[in-house]
Design goal:
Structural class: alpha+beta
CATH topology of the largest domain: Trna Endonuclease, Chain: A, domain 1
Strand order of the largest sheet: 3-4-2-1-5
CATH class of the largest domain: Alpha Beta
Shape: globular
CATH architecture of the largest domain: 3-Layer(aba) Sandwich
Distance between the termini: 65 Å
Number of helices: 6
Radius of gyration: 18 Å
Order of helices and strands: HEEHEEHEHHEEEHEE
Largest sheet: 5 strands, mixed
Number of domains: 2
């Protein structure tokens, strides 16, 4: 069976900026499933999308020299470039496995925009990943909350436990309780 997936896997080539790309004509099915962004005649995938699709056996990843990359070597490369990548990836993978469409967030504290299942028009949620045991400041949380409110999105904390499980906390603005 694995021979079949290798034959049908879309080949994506890493770029120097951490993204990968494939010819759109061979990767249309990925785009139709909510992966990547179209740039001219290419489908461009984020690091998280690339690693997830490699893990799922949907793509074959080659480096700039055309050499095939394993999941481990690709993960190592991404973690060297961004030490928090593992936490970001765990959250991305969990959301995708739950059936959500996940796109890059607004930078900084809001890593991802997440669409309701079956929707592609407007993201409802923004995700702020945290790793259990790694400190964060109230200033970061406050800035992320304010940004999510200014974008009209529901703010969600995604806490990655040490065992790799993700727990989500939805945060909503409520009026103060009157005594």
């Amino acid at each position: 069976m694995s021979g079949d997936s290798e034959q049908t896997a879309v080949t994506v080539r890493l770029r120097g900026d951490g993204f990968s790309e494939a010819q759109l004509r061979t990767a249309t099915s990925l785009y139709e499933r909510g992966y990547g962004e179209v740039e001219s005649d290419r489908l461009v995938l984020s690091a998280q999308e690339t690693l997830f699709l490699l893990e799922e056996g949907v793509v074959k990843v080659v480096d700039e020299n055309g050499s095939a990359m394993s999941f481990g070597s690709l993960m190592d490369r991404y973690v060297k470039a961004l030490p928090s990548f593992w936490t970001l990836y765990i959250v991305y993978r969990d959301l995708r496995k739950r059936g959500y469409l996940v796109k890059p967030g607004f930078g900084g504290e809001l890593a991802y925009r997440v669409y309701e299942k079956g929707r592609r028009d407007v993201a409802k949620y923004v995700i702020h990943p945290l790793f259990e045991g790694r400190p964060d400041t109230t200033g970061n949380l406050l800035n992320a909350t304010k940004l999510s409110m200014s974008k009209g999105k529901v703010f969600v904390l995604a806490v990655v436990e040490r065992r790799g499980e993700v727990i989500y906390y939805q945060c909503t603005a409520t009026p103060p309780v009157k005594d």
